[in-house]
Amino acid sequence: MKRIFLLCMLVPLLGISQNKNVVNSTRAFPKVDKVLEYEKALAAHAQKYHTGDWKWRVFEIQSGPDAGGYHITEGPASWQDIDGRGNLGAEHNMDYNKNVAIYLTERGGSSYSVYQDTLSTVALTDWADKINITHYVQKIGWGNKVWELLNNSKPVWKALGLSIAVYTASSSGPGQFTVVTRYKNGLKDRASMTLTGFKDQYEKTHGADSFDAYLEILRNYVSEQWSELLFYRADLSSK
User: Fold this and answer.
1) With bands split at pLDDT 50, 70 and 90, how would you rate the model's confidence at 141?
2) I want to staple 181 with a disulfide (CB 3.0 to 4.6 A). Which of 9, 17, 99, 132 is the partner?
3) Residue 10, domain member (yes or no)
4) Dihedral-angle region of residue 186 (phi above 0 means left; psi in -120 to 50 means alpha; beta otherwise)
5) What is the CATH number of the domain that holds 41?
6) Residues 170 and 148 occupy one common structural domain
């Protein structure tokens, strides 16, 4: 009887542990005179080695401090999937190092992000070809305040009809939330997105002068905030 009870207690934990909500992102910056060669090699590598559960979605970064770079996402997967993946093999590593990496600068990075369903208005895999990523880097010890800010923003986003996916960084530099706005109809969706419109809807949702509290959290608990536009490159991604 005790064993049955213990098993029942473990079932919810097993379900949580297998949740496929982790996305790995890599940023790469090719040499300015080798962009075409890099793109050709990247596409070939993706088609050969990154398919199925590990397929690549490649974005070109259009604006912000990383403009000109490439944002390569893999997943979603569970931590168990990532842990059990192991080394991709000598053939894969040789192909990447000899045929792709030779066109890159030394600049680059990799990160893990965990999708937050309770903060998002769109499903994790409900992708879009044009996106905006806003990075909220929290001050140390104040992640709960940024969570509060985004949690209060969710009903406002929904009222405005915005497709928003929220992620938290995991073992990937400073603690931060990334808010990804997915433009389902392309960049024309940006025309209706204004600070005034957001403020009006925020106060309609949370009451008069509530937007002042929103700004107070930004001022006091966020150390850095910045945004960028990214365009999906189907020709470079896994098929």
Assistant:
1) very high
2) 132
3) no
4) left
5) 3.30.70.100
6) yes
